[in-house]
Amino acid sequence: MTVITDPVLVAQNLKKRYDDIEAVAGISFEVKRGEVFGMLGPNGAGKTTTVEILEGMREADSGEAFINGINIKEDPTAIKSIIGVQLQQNAFFDNLNLAEIVDLYARLYNAKVDPVEILGRVGLAQRKGAKYKELSGGQKQRLSIAVALVNDPFVLFLDEPTTGLDPQARRSLWALIQDIQSSGSTIVLTTHYMEEAEELCDRIAIVENGQIVALDTPDALIDQLLETGFKPQKRVREATLDDVFLNLTGHELRD
Amino acid sequence: MKLYVALTVASLKMYFRNRQALFWALFFPLLIMLVFGIMNFERYNSPNVGIVDRAGNPASEGLVQALSGTDDQDVLSVTLGTHDELMEDLEFGDSKAVIVIPENFGTPGEFATIDITYDERFQQERAVIATVVGQVTDAVFKQVAQVPDEYRVENNIGISESFIEGQGQGFKGWLIPGIAAMAIMQTGLFTVVFTLVRFKSQGVLRRLRATPIGASHFLAGQLTTKAIVVVLQTYVLVIVGSLVLGVTVGQGRLGAWFDLTILALLGGALFIAVGLAISGWAKSEETAAPIANIISMPMMFLSGVFFPLSIMPEWVVGFAQYLPLTYLADGMRAITVHGDSITTLGNELIGLAIWIAISFVIATRLFKWE
Predict the structure, then answer these.
(1) Which of residues 41-80 of A touch B (CB under 8 A)?
(2) Which region, left, alpha or beta, applies to residue A33 given φ > 0 means left and ψ of -120 to 50 means alpha?
(3) Residue of A186 and B4 predicted with greater confidence
(4) A127 versus B154: which is more confidently predicted?
(5) Cα–Cα distance between B148 and A250 in angstroms, integer?
(6) Would you say residue B148 has pLDDT above 60?
(7) Interior angle at CA A227, CA A224 and CA A232, nearest 5
(8) Are the CB atoms for B324 and B263 separated by under 8 Å?
(9) Number of domains in chain B
(10) Which of B164, B181, B215 is the last residue in one of the domains?
(11) What CATH code is carried by the domain that includes residue B50?
(12) Which helix (H) or strand (E) holds B119?
């Protein structure tokens, strides 16, 4: 069993330019073992570029990053073999069924897995013979998480996993992510849903214009804001519209 | 290696579950081949004959002219050449008769015998050719030799007939390797273009790049699949074609199948590389499809797939003979129809090798993962 370092992920002053836009302008943070670390920010803030650098999919112009002590720039292949990745846009082969897709990806990581067991972890065991294109949006996201789990990763990257899902599917995915965390995985998650970050993340970094403008636990960040004398424009009620919707339409998945 | 096999098996599964790809790779060329073969378009053409002009005088030239007919109306499709060349054409079905005009043809007062050798299997063509030659010599001799009317032509010109049993397979035998070559082009180009462009635009390749293996291994598996498909498809087309249309392959030479496999792989490599270049460059299927068509359509008609290059204007033949599909179709035809060994196909092999090199260079320059 490989020793897992703590912090498991270290990013130091990462920078990345595209032509005249500085997408990532000096980002540093650490992710502790076993936590869910959220990166929040509006579209185009630099979340995805940062995550892609950490995944070894893009090279940073400057700065360094380590996962479990391995320098990403020096050995991206080693990094790729110990992380699990769910990209913002995932697509899998049309003409393979789910079990075949999971099996094929397991081979790419040289991992021995039972595809049905992995599919069971994300609630898709029943659909092992289905084709990717027959899945609903939520099921597609679940499959891409299943594929990200084939190598039993040290760090699981989830890039906007719930974007485009209905509230039922979103909540069911949250439960899945919490379940994965409780089995000891470290998760780096990007989202632009504040509610999602509050529900799932132990700590969050708020990214704006390629920089981290705040980094703390959700509670601490809210407390800091309140200390400045901030008053919400609307009175806080005991329930949200989300609750109303779920109360009326039920919590069961519609997949 | 295990991974490579696994990836190839997976992509074979993907391929054979894709009914659309199967249709275009197998059933469509098979359909065209059987329809054209059974309709036998050849019979609407004027018969090909070879003429050996040993006299070389105005009288014999006039005879050749008259046998050829006018531009508007072919009487016979005439090829001039040496006796050996033309007999070989007859032997392999490229022509239906060889007509030898003797040295003393047109010499006043001398009795000249025109020798005609037929392929005995084509009696219908024999009847047409014999009638045409009889009528034309009659007219020409009267005119050129200026023989007074009272001398009957028969007194001075004789026609002797002989027969050989040719090895040629006619239009059907000619069509099968052409269609097989065309199918190799279509499979190489279109299945590579459509699967890779789709994988690219949907982000399948991107997701693969996030694995430690990367997408290049996957690509290798995909290309191996296409190569296997190209060979299988060639076997199916040639076997079904020869059974249904009743022709023998490679003059019965068993090594022909090995040679065909090599040629199919070379052709496959060539068109797969062209497909890679297109799909590497194009961002979506909408841009890739027209390019693939622009490349394949002219070749389909200019490379001697359905009709021989010789019926086309000379300026077309001038460049059509250098097209990649022409080399492939000619090579496959030499193997299946003439029973040639691949070692004798220097011209075709060099042509294919040059095109393979060109397209691989372009493909590696143009290919982008995203």
Answers:
(1) 55-57, 77-78, 80
(2) beta
(3) A186
(4) A127
(5) 112
(6) no
(7) 90
(8) no
(9) 2
(10) B164
(11) 3.40.1710.10
(12) strand B112-119
Q: Tell me the H-state helices in chain A.
A: 47-54, 76-82, 98-108, 115-121, 137-148, 167-182, 194-200, 218-227, 241-249
Whether B35 and B92 map to the same domain: the answer is no
My answer on whether B211 and B179 are in the same domain is yes
- Which of A158, A143, A55 shows the shortest CA–CA distance to A101? A143
Q: What is the pLDDT of residue A92?
A: 85
Q: Round the average pLDDT of chain A to a whole number and report it.
A: 88
Residue B17 contacts A, CB cutoff 8 Å: yes
pLDDT, tens digit, for every residue of A208-239?
999 999 999 998 988 888 888 877 776 667 77
Q: Which domain holds residue B347?
A: 2-39+170-366
> What mean pLDDT, rounded, does chain B reach?
84
In contact, A98 and A129? CB cutoff 8 Å = yes
Kindly report whether the peptide bond that precedes residue A7 is cis, defined as omega within 30 degrees of 0.
Answer: yes
Which one has a higher pLDDT value, A3 or B24?
Answer: B24
Instruction: Please tell me if residue A130 touches chain B, with a CB cutoff of 8 Å.
Output: no
Report yes or no: A112 at the B interface, CB cutoff 8 Å: no
Q: Is the pLDDT of residue A156 over 90?
A: yes
Which residue from A minimizes the CA distance to B211? A80
Lookup: tokens for A145: 């998480």
Going along chain A from its start, the domains and CATH numbers come out as 9-249 (3.40.50.300)
A87 touches chain B (CB under 8 A): yes
Q: Say whether both B145 and B175 belong to one domain.
A: no
With CA atoms as reference, the chain A residue closest to B217 would be A108
In Å, what is the CA distance from B337 to each residue of A179, B197, B232, B348? 68, 38, 20, 15
ipTM value: 0.85
The verdict on B20 touching A (C-beta cutoff 8 Å) is no
For A72, phi and psi rounded to 5 degrees? Answer: -65, -40
Query: Does the pLDDT value for residue B150 go beyond 60?
Result: no
User: B21 and B56, same structural domain?
Assistant: no
Q: Do B203 and A80 touch (CB under 8 A)?
A: no
pLDDT band at B352 (very low <50, low <70, confident <90, very high): very high
Residues 189-208 of B with CB under 8 A from A: 198-199, 202-204, 206-208
Which residues on neighbouring strands pair with residue B48, listed in sequence order? B77
Q: What percent of chain A has pLDDT over 70?
A: 95
**pLDDT at residue A184 greater than cutoff 70:** yes
> pLDDT: is A246 or A186 the higher one?
A186
Among B270, B320, B286, B315, which Cα is nearest to B300's? B320
CA distance A243 to chain B (A): 34
